[in-house]
């Protein structure tokens, strides 16, 4: 039999694409190399009784439009907002963060009254940038080098959005898109801890430091999400990040789609410039009218497509696509809640994210280590204990702690990571937490340490890059993943890419998967009944 | 207000002030050009006293670009300008041995790759160059739409493939391009060094390749991306420009330091000099830097609070130090001294030299651009001796350990590197002088010691330069205009001055 579409990889984007295609009546099969689904949005039991979100750990970027279209709440998805957060300072102080803007403002005032004032203006400005960029997320980027009516129409549409802004706002936006977060925050704030807290979103997952130009955009990328309509608010998925992909899988099955796990793709079949299906490892052949890859563009094209079937300059561009990993992860099973003496009794900070990096300089120095090919000696960690909000992930009284670590390079001084490197990296992170929570190490029941090496081997992210490609301007919008191919197509007819290496990029957002589905359905001349405001220019 | 009256006062006789004053005078305006120092030139001035018999350019020692309009109109050869050298090659000094680059020609295994990359970048630079010649576009009404459309069409005329590539690399970092396209660490070093020369950024910082494109966009005497050194050094260029200005009718007053720009309410009425003298004019153009002009000479009280805040936040960190050595003999760098030498082994060295500067520290292994003006023009040093002029990167503008300590540490680090590259050079030193960014700020009035009177970065370029409200050379005070390196397109090519004169003439019509 021949499928209408076979999707390579059961990550969230692959599943989103599959869901939309199945809903439009296509016969869809998702093949996944691992024995479980989810890609980097997974919940796994790695030690008995404990569920780990062992890759991605927060849900806020996931587009609400997709949740509605695919009825994910009905399929079991529930997002629980963070309730707090804190930066623990060297020497015992702390900066708390709260869900409520006014509470934050009061907390800022404790550190700097001037910055509390500035916080209102800053929030307003960042919100304006978010509002501008959000409509762009669910649209296929136009190709500015082509004179096709649709590209021209789309460019005009963007031009119209821009011209609706005032001159000062446009200038502000261009600056925001090109500046470093450090310089940007200097315009508003004076207190180093406040700046360190606000700079976090600009470095998460990025091979940039807070002083690198372009990092302010990365902050925006993380702020575009919303939980319950609060822009920039972050939340947990009940049951871990795997709840998102489980809900997607359930939604897919309810529309008649199939998923095969333990089915790794060997090769995409190409005949006369068009794909006819895939061969799995082990030799099984699956015939399909179209193949859609949720793997990153490098993995798809350089590993699973014959070089002879691709134009030389396309391959050269794919090779230039930057996928340097910069993050690691510790997943820890705990025997109880660690005590952070700096935090007041009953603080809500443990129901959100904890940081131990109290200045931008420390963050930047952590990045300098990465540039030199080392993991950071004093890394930035985004630590949270999701079980403080969602007790379903562990046995009663026990806890799961997720530590996202910045920076860890794809290679150590140019050579591959060894187990000893990985353990040293893990120890560095544990030691840092112990400094702020004496006795913490005694609570540890199990630790999983993940470096870019593990992320590549298990999840399939080339060089362990969590965004399937760095988020710098040379790789955004019409440049993502490759100039001329930002419309989810490839030089091979009917071979598509739907993962995070396409516009608008990484994070558990679902937008690339949805946009790819829109293009595929449009190409197949099928209706997109269920898709909310699918496209602007038809 | 008493005092002499002229049509226009231009403050600051650097290359931009000179170009601006000349163009206005050629259009029949009565122009007085005020220079605080005893000689014109600004960043192209001479260093007063290195050592007896030794002459060195104080800051700029080479010219990358001279605005072709100013060049044509000022006719400098008639006013005494001669070239000691043009099309100066670049030699990268490295433990792997020196490598000489002449434009797109480089020796070694990467010759083909370098030629391809260089030609492509030169082509992009050529397509971007027309933007340097226009008043930055506005994003609203009153735009020069015709000019903008023409420039944009020129970009599109690169062809689909090249246009796409330009859009990809426009905001990319220099490091990635060097690694993608080149294998020879010396060529990578050259690209990364030139992309960050004078900037407060390492080559891994996004938005650095465009700085290289901006360099390649320049020309002198119709030669694109050609390095030149005038006979007598850069001060001789300044002197020739001053003669051209005077020939056009500009009244040049040296040693005339402006203490205040006088405004009555909303408009400018003249200037007060430090010696108490007063000059009247209803048009004042300042080339000494947006911050110095508005915050110091006009004063925040006469300005909108929002504008003052924006201007204070404008980034103006200098990252380059200037080293002068008077040498008793010719140093041995193992290569021909008739070159601009870059002392940086690979792209990582350039980045590593920037790292400590982010934290206000002195790098242990700075990288540098070295020129021996005396190799091209013997008048710079006594018989047998040499003058070495180097731009040393990167240097902190606000060092944590204190200014004198930082200067001493920077000098020692620089000399140690030079000694490794040219063994024995330390014993030849008659006199050494190092200007840190804060010294440059003090001596040249450049905010933060930044050559461009404000960092030349993407977020402070074109219609964002120096800040969005001031990007079209006019200020909110009627009759007061800004020009100079702090305004679009930056640099000392005279382009900013020429553009400003054009904008002033257009507004006056």
UniProtKB/TrEMBL annotation, chain A:
Protein origin, superkingdom: Bacteria
Keywords carried by this UniProt record: Oxidoreductase
Secretion signal span: none
Domain called Amine oxidase: residue spans: 14-521
InterPro entries: Amino_oxidase, FAD/NAD-bd_sf
Record GO terms (molecular function): oxidoreductase activity
Entry-linked PANTHER family: PHYTOENE DEHYDROGENASE (PTHR10668), PYRIDINE NUCLEOTIDE-DISULFIDE OXIDOREDUCTASE DOMAIN-CONTAINING PROTEIN 2 (PTHR10668:SF103)
Task of the protein: Probable oxidoreductase that may play a role as regulator of mitochondrial function.
Subunit architecture: Interacts with COX5B; this interaction may contribute to localize PYROXD2 to the inner face of the inner mitochondrial membrane.
Record-given protein name: Pyridine nucleotide-disulfide oxidoreductase domain-containing protein 2
Source organism of the structure: Pseudogemmobacter humi
Automatic annotation (TrEMBL), chain B:
GO MF assignments: oxidoreductase activity
Domain called Amine oxidase: residue spans: 17-504
Keyword Oxidoreductase assigned: yes
SUPFAM superfamilies from the UniProt entry: FAD/NAD(P)-binding domain
UniProtKB keywords: Oxidoreductase
One Pfam family cited in the UniProt record for this chain: Amino_oxidase
Domain of life (superkingdom): Bacteria
Entry keyword Oxidoreductase: yes
Record text on subunit structure and interactions: Interacts with COX5B; this interaction may contribute to localize PYROXD2 to the inner face of the inner mitochondrial membrane.
Biological function: Probable oxidoreductase that may play a role as regulator of mitochondrial function.
Protein name: Pyridine nucleotide-disulfide oxidoreductase domain-containing protein 2
Gene symbol of the encoding locus: crtI_1
């Amino acid at each position: 039999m021949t499928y209408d579409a076979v999707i390579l990889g059961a990550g969230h984007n692959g599943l989103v694409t599959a869901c939309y295609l199945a809903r439009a009546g296509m016969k869809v099969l998702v093949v996944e190399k691992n024995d479980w689904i989810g890609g980097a949005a997974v919940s796994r039991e790695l030690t008995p009784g404990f569920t780990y979100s062992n890759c991605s750990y927060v849900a806020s970027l996931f587009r609400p439009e997709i949740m509605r279209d695919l009825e994910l709440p009905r399929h079991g998805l529930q997002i629980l907002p963070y309730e707090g957060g804190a930066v623990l300072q060297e020497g015992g102080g702390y900066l708390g963060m709260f869900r409520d803007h006014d509470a934050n403002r009061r907390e800022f005032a404790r550190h700097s009254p001037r910055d509390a004032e500035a916080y209102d203006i800053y929030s307003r400005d960042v919100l304006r940038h978010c509002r501008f960029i959000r409509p762009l997320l669910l649209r296929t980027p136009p190709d500015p080098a082509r004179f096709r009516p649709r590209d021209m129409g789309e460019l005009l549409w963007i031009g119209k959005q821009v011209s609706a802004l005032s001159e000062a706002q446009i200038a502000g936006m261009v600056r925001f898109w090109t500046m470093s977060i450090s310089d940007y925050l200097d315009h508003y704030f004076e207190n180093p801890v406040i700046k360190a807290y606000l700079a976090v979103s600009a470095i998460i997952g990025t091979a940039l430091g807070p002083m690198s130009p372009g990092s302010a955009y990365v902050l925006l990328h993380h702020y575009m999400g919303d939980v319950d309509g609060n822009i920039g608010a972050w939340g947990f998925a009940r049951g871990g990040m795997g709840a998102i992909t489980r809900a997607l899988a359930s939604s897919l099955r309810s529309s008649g789609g199939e998923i095969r796990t333990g089915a790794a793709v060997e090769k995409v079949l190409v005949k006369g410039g068009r794909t006819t299906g895939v061969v799995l490892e082990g030799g099984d052949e699956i015939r399909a009218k179209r193949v859609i890859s949720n793997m990153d563009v490098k993995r798809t094209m350089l590993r699973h497509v014959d070089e002879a079937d691709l134009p030389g300059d396309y391959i050269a561009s794919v090779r230039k696509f930057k996928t340097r990993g910069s993050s690691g992860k510790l997943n820890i099973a705990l025997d109880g809640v660690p005590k952070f003496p700096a935090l007041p009794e009953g603080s809500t900070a443990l129901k959100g994210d904890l940081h131990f990096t109290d200045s931008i300089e420390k963050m930047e120095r952590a990045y300098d280590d990465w540039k030199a090919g080392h993991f950071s000696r004093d890394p930035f960690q985004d630590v949270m204990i999701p079980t403080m909000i969602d007790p379903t992930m562990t046995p009663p009284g026990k806890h799961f702690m997720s530590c996202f670590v910045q920076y860890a390079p794809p290679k150590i001084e140019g050579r591959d990571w060894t187990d000893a490197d990985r353990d040293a990296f893990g120890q560095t992170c544990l030691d840092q937490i112990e400094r702020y929570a004496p006795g913490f190490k005694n609570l540890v029941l199990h630790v999983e340490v993940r470096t870019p090496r593990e992320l590549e081997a298990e999840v399939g992210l080339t060089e362990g890059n969590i965004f399937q490609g760095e988020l710098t301007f040379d790789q955004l919008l019409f440049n993502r993943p490759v100039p001329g191919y930002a419309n989810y197509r490839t030089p091979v007819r009917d071979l598509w890419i739907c993962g995070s290496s396409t516009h608008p990029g990484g994070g558990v957002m679902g937008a690339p998967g949805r946009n790819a589905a829109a293009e595929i359905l449009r190409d197949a001349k099928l209706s997109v009944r269920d898709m909310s405001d699918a496209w602007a220019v038809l | 207000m008493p005092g002499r009256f002229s049509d226009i006062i231009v403050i600051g006789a650097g290359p931009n002030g000179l170009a601006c004053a000349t163009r206005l005078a050629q259009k029949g305006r009565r122009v007085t050009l005020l220079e605080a120092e005893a000689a014109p030139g600004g960043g192209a001035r001479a260093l007063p006293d290195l050592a007896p018999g030794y002459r060195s350019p104080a800051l700029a020692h080479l010219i990358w670009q001279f605005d072709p309009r100013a060049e044509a109109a000022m006719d400098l050869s008639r006013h005494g300008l001669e070239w000691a050298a043009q099309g100066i090659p670049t030699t990268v000094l490295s433990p792997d041995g020196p490598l000489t680059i002449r434009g797109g020609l480089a020796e070694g295994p990467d010759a083909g790759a370098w030629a391809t990359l260089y030609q492509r970048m030169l082509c992009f630079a050529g397509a971007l160059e027309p933007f340097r010649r226009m008043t930055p576009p506005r994003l609203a009404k009153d735009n020069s739409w015709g000019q903008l459309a023409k420039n944009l069409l020129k970009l599109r005329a690169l062809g689909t493939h090249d246009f796409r590539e330009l859009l990809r690399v426009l905001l990319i970092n220099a490091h990635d391009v060097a690694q993608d396209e080149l294998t020879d660490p010396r060529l990578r070093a050259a690209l990364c060094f030139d992309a960050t020369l004078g900037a407060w950024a390492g080559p891994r910082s996004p938005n650095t390749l465009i700085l290289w494109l901006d360099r390649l966009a320049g020309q002198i005497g119709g030669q694109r991306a050609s390095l030149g050194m005038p006979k007598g050094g850069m001060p001789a260029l300044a002197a020739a420009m001053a003669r051209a200005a005077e020939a056009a009718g500009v009244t040049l007053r040296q040693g005339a330091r402006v203490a205040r720009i006088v405004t009555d309410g909303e408009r400018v009425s003249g200037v007060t000099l430090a010696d108490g003298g007063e000059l009247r004019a209803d048009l004042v153009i300042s080339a000494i830097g947006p911050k110095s002009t508005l915050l110091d000479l006009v004063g925040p009280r006469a300005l909108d609070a929002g504008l003052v805040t924006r201007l204070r936040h404008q980034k103006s960190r200098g990252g380059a130090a200037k080293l002068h050595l008077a040498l008793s003999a010719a140093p041995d760098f193992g290569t021909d001294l008739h070159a601009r030498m870059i002392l940086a082994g690979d792209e990582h060295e350039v980045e590593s030299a920037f790292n400590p500067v982010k934290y206000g520290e002195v790098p242990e292994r700075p990288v540098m651009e070295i020129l021996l003006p005396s190799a091209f023009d013997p008048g710079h040093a006594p018989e047998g001796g040499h003058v070495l002029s180097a731009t040393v990167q990167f240097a902190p503008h606000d060092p944590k350990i204190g200014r004198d300590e930082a200067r001493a540490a920077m000098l020692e680090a620089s000399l140690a590197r030079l000694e490794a590259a040219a063994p024995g050079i330390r014993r030849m030193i008659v006199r050494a002088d190092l200007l840190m960014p804060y010294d440059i700020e003090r001596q040249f009035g450049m905010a933060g010691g930044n050559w461009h009177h404000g960092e030349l970065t993407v977020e402070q370029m074109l219609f964002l330069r120096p800040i969005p409200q001031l990007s079209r050379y006019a200020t909110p005070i009627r009759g007061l205009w800004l020009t100079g390196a702090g305004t679009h397109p930056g640099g000392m090519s005279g382009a900013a001055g020429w553009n400003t004169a054009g904008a002033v003439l257009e507004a006056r019509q």
